[in-house]
Amino acid sequence: MTAVAARAAHGWQAVLPRFDRGRAARSLVAFGLSLGAVTAVGGIHNGIFAAMGCYVDAYGARDPYPRRGPLLAILSAAFLVAFVAGSAAAGDVWAMTGVLSVVSVAATLVVRTLRLSGPGSYFVVLVAAMAAFLPPASPTETAVRAGCLALGAALSWLSGMSGWLSRPYGPEERAVSAAFRSVAAFAQTQTDAAGGTAAGTAGGRNGRRDGLPAAGRRAYVAVHSAWTALDHARRGRGEGPPVPEPAPRRMTLYALMTGLEALLDTVQNAAQGSGAPVSPDRVAWLRAAATEIGAGRVPKPCPGGPDTSRVLPEYARALWPVPLPPRTSLRAELRRLLSRSSPGLPVALRVGITVAVGTALGSVLPLLHPAWVAVGAAAALQGGPGQQPARRARARFAGTVTGVALTALVFHSYQPGTWVTVVVATVAHAVSRGLPPGALLTRTLLNTPVALLLVATAVPAGLGRLAAFRLLDLTLGLVLGVAAALLLSGVPGRRVCAAVANAVAATGTAVAERLRTGAAPVDCAGAAWQRMAELWDMHAAVPAEEIRTTGTADRLWPAVLAVRRLLSWTVLGGSPRPDPTGAARAGHHVRVLAEAAHTGLPGSPALRRSLAGPPRAPEAAHDPELHRRLADLTEALVRPASTAPAGDATTEG
């Protein structure tokens, strides 16, 4: 019973993030200093703008420090540009509509290009909308307000980077630790599903088997996130000389991830019935290693594996930087974002159109604080924890209703003073930052009283009346956002098909090169890994942009998994003897699949018709594993969509 309880505890730890006390404390200091100092010097009216600058701390929580610092600086500049543009357009309906729509599109594209963890373009739109709906101000007053906002952003930047002094590799260590823990949970689930639990009944084993695909998807999500963190920790950008070897600690994490990749492959083979399960001592080692890595230490050697203290560094140096993608310039990143296989452009245009309509409605209707119409529209389409727009809207609506009721109850007969407002706003902001990524309802509940208290100091309308209009304004915006998600397609199917086809084609090229020469070239393997990462992003983006579940993500997942497993075998599977004939056959087979993938989603009649019958995967002369993985890829593209458990989407940081 104790062992079962321990396994359950490990599973819950892998699924449910804990309250981040460190992040909450840092946000408390930065927000309190910004709002308190500006309020003491320039009054609460200017303190509000410093508080707006502190919204920078909603971003970058999962990004490694070498990347986080420059990107948060860019985001702070974007806040300032959005604020100044909104202030310049204040007072003119058409100018506000044009400026806010352009800011929304540009911010969505920039945040997606930078791949900065956080709530998308939501807070950039909020800053611009708040400035636009204020009464027109003189250039001097606008400069003072922008300076206050810059102060808040600067202190939030310092807060976000403060961990670099004590734990410079903390974000990467947390990501790798989570990957180890998730793979351990996947391995334990597979062992239990295979009958490893002594007291399991037939019904219990069936229940555990039903949970196996979900555990596998969570494991692959965590491993992909860890590789992404290690990739983001690399310095330098742009094509040129090879990226230098990273710091020893990051090289150790990189080496541990290559070993974890092999273990994950073993567990997946066992889950598919083509291999033996991972032994219990290795599962226990994975859990212990997760704890050690999270604490900044090197785990003990894996049972039955090499002595990591001696072998891993040499192995890592020989392999580096495979499988990480090659460095690219920002121009190349933007070009990729606008390509036909990216969801970025249609999503950005939809946000821009919706914010424009919300701005026009807010300007025409007799609303007390009309900026929240545009902000609510953006909130339904951006800024949620990887959920569908309807679920984001429900969570924000419920949080707003609860927050308004709480504010009315607490401040019905008590009018808070300036410093009570500062203290309440600071504490609520800090607690909201420490909450897990998916706690959108609770965050909205905490942020609603803060917004009401701060705005009430500038709008002489009474807290109760302001709360009622806040509920009305935001509800109108959320309804508008949901309607836009229903009427305007988030990610067109042709872009999804292009992402699948590009990933399959690039992986096929890497496979053919590996068979032809005995090793996939670094550039070829890195390009294939990049295409696979784009397919991964597409798989995560599709459900987050849909108003109703279409099953597209579930139809994509078998193809995502098959492409990734074929690619990991290609770039991490050693150096076989060259086989030019096998290379030609495998390359032709994958090219046929890639061409078919352009015609329809995996499992669709259009894709099956284009193949005129599923092609048979070529037999490999030296490695039957290649035949098995090519057959899995063919099956994933050809078979009808299955009902798979929903995976963990990209979450708000």
User: Whole-number radius of gyration?
Assistant: 26 Å
Indicate the percent of residues in helices. over 70%
Give the number of helices: 27
Dominant shape: globular
Given as residue ranges, the uncertain stretches (5+ residues, pLDDT < 50) are 1-16, 197-207, 306-310, 643-653
> What are the secondary-structure elements, in order, as H or E?
HHHHHHHHHHHHHHHHHHHHHHHHHHH
What is the percentage of strand-forming residues? Answer: under 5%
Q: Taking all residues together, what is the mean pLDDT?
A: 85
Span from first to last CA? 36 Å
Give me the count of strands.
0
Structural class assignment: mainly alpha
Main sheet overview: none
Plain-language structure description:
This protein is mainly α and 653 residues long. The longest helix has 27 residues, at 170-196. Helix 5 (93-114) packs across helix 15 (330-337), helix 12 (248-271) crosses helix 14 and helix 23 (522-544) runs antiparallel to helix 24 (552-572). It is globular. The chain contains 27 helices and no strands.
Q: How do the helices and strands line up, and which of them pair or pack?
A:
Elements: H1 2-15, H2 21-42, H3 44-53, H4 65-89, H5 93-114, H6 122-132, H7 139-161, H8 163-166, H9 170-196, H10 202-210, H11 212-232, H12 248-271, H13 280-294, H14 308-319, H15 330-337, H16 344-364, H17 371-381, H18 389-410, H19 418-434, H20 440-456, H21 463-487, H22 493-517, H23 522-544, H24 552-572, H25 580-597, H26 605-611, H27 624-638
Helix pairs in contact: 1-9, 2-3, 2-7, 2-19, 3-7, 4-5, 4-6, 4-7, 5-6, 5-15, 5-16, 6-17, 9-10, 9-11, 9-12, 9-13, 11-12, 12-14, 16-17, 16-21, 17-18, 17-21, 18-20, 18-21, 19-20, 20-21, 22-23, 22-24, 22-25, 23-24, 24-27, 25-26
